[in-house]
Amino acid sequence: MHKLWASIYKELLLLFRDIGGLAILFVMPLVLVVTITMIQDSTFRSINDNKIPILWVDNDKGEVSKSIYDGLAASKSFTIIDKKSDSEAKELVFKGKYQLAIVIPPNLSSGLEKKVNLNVEGLLSKFGLEEEKPRSEKEDPEKKEVILYFDPATQMTFKNSIKNGIDKMIFKIETQTIYKAFQAQITDDETEAIFDTESFITFKEISPSTGENEIIPNSVQHNVPAWTLFAIFFIIVPLSINMVKEKSQGTFVRLRTNPVSYLIVLGGKTVVYLAVCLIQFGLMLGIGVYLLPTLGLPSLEVSGKIPLLFLVAIFAGLAAIGLGLLLGTVARTQEQSAPFGATFVVILAALGGVWVPVFIMPKFMQALSNLSPMNWGLNAFYDVFLRNVGILDVIPELALLFLFFVITTAISIAYNERKNAV
Amino acid sequence: MIQISHLSKKYKNNEEYSVVDLDLKIAEGEIFGLLGPNGAGKTTLISMLSSLIKPTSGSFSINGLTFQKNANQLKRSIGIVPQEYALYPTLTAYENLHYLGSMYGLKGKQLKEKIHSHLEILGLKKFYNKKVDTFSGGMKRRVNLIASILHGPKVLFLDEPTVGVDVQSKNVIMEHLKKLNAQGTTIIYTSHHLNEAEQFCSKVAIIDHGRIIIEGAPKDLISKYPESRNLEDVFLTLTGKALRDHA
């Protein structure tokens, strides 16, 4: 035990003697969380303060184009800029000046009305309510296309959401036009309400709640746990560098000649770097609760969850440290450990669902994701932060994280023994 | 007593053995010098004796103990002064020694007293609270030595302990080693300083190409070769004047 305390004290001294490194260890993750949360905040907001400017070319000037325009304006996501010419709008978008241009074709409103009337009349004639003329005698209106120009650099998710939004608007307009056409055929009184054109089916999202308070997912609740976990795992870089330095300084060789087990050496590092992880985690929570609201972001909701959050952080920290110990044991130089460690954490984060949710990954990647300790950690954090679960529900993830720590540490010891066996 | 029997070492990527079928006995209380040109196998032999590398074949025991059977007991009874400084540069001399002494199970007042006593003897007491990376090469060598003798080893291995140090530091180190030997510590050391070895060692072995080519008291070896005035002449006679560069 005395040797373990001495190792812990030595690791603490080494850490505190590198004030610059220590500051980076604590400050950079905080900068990361604040930056990412601010960037991603807009995707979580229903009312976006930062409107996206889009170009609008209206060759229709009818009711349909007005409805689409009003729909876009009502979304409050866009600043709509009118342009006269299709080609000008296209050029501006393709040069990257704007992300999107919407071009409404000429006679869209009249064409749609004609098409709907044709269908309604045809339908009514089948019921004997309208004078029947062969459909071939009636002229089908020309099909219309709403043209969308996207900046080639625009992300697919943005493109899809715009396409879906406009598609939904057009579908609604078509439905309402059909209702109007039926009304016009059935009654001459335009004020008589025969059809209720409002949507019958609406959506209501129910979120998990703590007591009477509903937990509404927001950018902070999503990003703070995800990027905190990312920062916790980044501990493998300084930890492995610490170990490689001991090799290059010769102190590791000296320790091998001392009557001290490698487990004690690793134990000292584990305790100190775990403490670093937990301090980091506490600072991240503090940032989420106190700093982010002052930057106009939602506050991190942690009430009643702090002990469980720290429990998850301990196990996530252990998993990260296990990986760092293994890397530090195997790597011979800092040139090996630092780039590998940093890149590997990014890969684990990607697999773990920090950037892209696991459920939208290809099946194979989803299967791989199950092997990422960051996936287990992230799930455990989301369980506590967003799903409002108790300790029993996070035990499977905690067990996996702990198992990962035990296995990586055991491999480190076995590797060291094998390499240095006498 | 150190007893080495048919000890050999061949590194993975080397075609030749670094130490070949080596037999050697070193008596208790001896100051034994392992001398040889670069790449002769001195450091490999010391590394095997201090548990840093595994022999390819053969065996050895130190005071009847082996690493296979009594690893921790053996480690406690020996001290190794490696060629490199093997200290934490950002820790002070005291912090380095306190940590490394703790690894031998020393603690409390006993450890503090030992550290301060050795620091005083080796002229470093007033620097005990300074970081090692501010020390000169000679000062680092002295701290390096203290780190290996704090626990009072019965056998002390030194791999070129005076490389790159000034004359004064070298003198202090050698005097301290003599005192330790007088107190019963067996010393095995490698060096390229043959005059130093001649003065210091009670017995030397000249190694070349992994084999001991001659062994005995320095005076006896010099007298064996009448044309030699000193140990360096004996060395050059036996190992030749060709350069021994290797990479």
Number of domains as seen in the coordinates of chain A = 2
Helical coverage of chain B, percent range: 25-40%
User: Please, how many helices of chain A?
Assistant: 15
Coarse structural class of chain A: mainly alpha
Question: How much of the sequence of chain A is in beta strands?
Answer: 5-15%
Which superfamily, in CATH terms, is the homologous superfamily of the largest domain in chain B? P-loop containing nucleotide triphosphate hydrolases
Helix percent of chain A reads 55-70%
Q: Quick one: biggest sheet of chain A?
A: 4 strands, mixed
Number of domains of chain B: 2
Uncertain residue ranges of chain A:
none
CATH topology of the largest domain in chain B: Rossmann fold
Q: Which strand order does the major sheet of chain B show?
A: 5-6-7-3-8-9
CATH class of the largest domain in chain B: Alpha Beta
So what's the oligomer here?
heterodimer
Question: What fraction of the residues of chain B are assigned to beta strands by DSSP?
Answer: 15-25%
List the helices and strands and how they pair.
The complex is a heterodimer of chains A (422) and B (247).
Chain A: H1 2-17, H2 19-44, E1 52-58, H3 63-75, E2 78-82, H4 86-94, E3 100-104, H5 108-126, E4 147-150, H6 156-186, E5 209-210, E6 213-214, H7 219-233, H8 236-249, H9 251-257, H10 262-294, H11 306-330, H12 334-352, H13 363-369, H14 373-385, H15 391-419
Parallel strand pairs in A: 1-2, 1-3
Antiparallel strand pairs in A: 3-4, 5-6
Helix pairs in contact in A: 1-10, 2-7, 2-10, 3-6, 5-6, 7-10, 7-14, 8-11, 8-12, 10-11, 11-14, 11-15, 12-14, 14-15
Chain B: E1 2-9, E2 19-26, E3 31-35, H1 42-49, E4 57-62, H2 67-77, E5 78-81, H3 93-102, H4 108-121, H5 137-149, E6 155-159, H6 167-182, E7 186-191, H7 194-200, E8 203-208, E9 211-216, H8 218-224, H9 231-239
Parallel strand pairs in B: 3-7, 3-8, 5-6, 6-7
Antiparallel strand pairs in B: 1-2, 1-4, 8-9
